[in-house]
Amino acid sequence: MSQTDATESIVGEYFDAYSKRDRAAIEAVIAEDFRFTSPLDNQIDRKTYFEICWPNSETIIVMALKHLQVFGQRAFVTYEALNRDGKRFRNTELLTVKEGRISEVEVYFGWNLPHTVAVGTHRADG
Fold first, then answer.
1. SS3 call for 92
2. Which fold is adopted by the domain 3-108?
C-alpha cells in the first residue's frame, strides 16, 4: 500500500469514528504526540483534545466528507455537518499522518494570523 493510500485509509477511519462517536476507534488512529489546532486551539495535546473537543461529537448528527485530497502523509478534507440543533456547518482540515497514526490536525474556520491563542491553550469565549 502506498503512503497516499495509507493516509487516505487512516483519515477515513478518523472521520468514521468521529461520526459514530466511537472514542476507542478514534483513539486507535490518533498518535500519542497528537496536536490539534483551530481558531480556538493552538497545538493542544491529545489529552486536552479529548477533554475539550471530543465532547462536540455528541452534538453532530451527520458528518459528510465533501472533498478529500491526499498528498503523501497529508490530507486536506472538507466536510459538512448537521448539529442536533439543526445548524449546519462546513470545515476544512489538514491532517498529517506519521507512522500509521494521525499526528496533527489543523481545522480551518476563520482564524487570524498570527494565531491569537497562546500555544497549548484553548480560548473558551469563541
1. strand
2. Nuclear Transport Factor 2; Chain: A, (3.10.450)
Residue 75: how many other CB atoms lie within 10 Å: 23
pLDDT greater than 80 at residue 7: yes
User: pTM value?
Assistant: 0.87
Among 62, 42, 48, residue whose Cα is nearest residue 126: 42
Would you kindly state where each structural domain of the chain is located, as residue ranges? 3-108
Residue 107 CA to residue 120 CA, distance in Å, equals: 15
pLDDT in tens, 44-54: 999 999 999 99
Residue 113 has pLDDT above 70, yes or no: no
- The H or E element spanning position 24 is helix 23-29
Cα dihedral 24, 25, 30, 35 in deg (nearest 10): -70
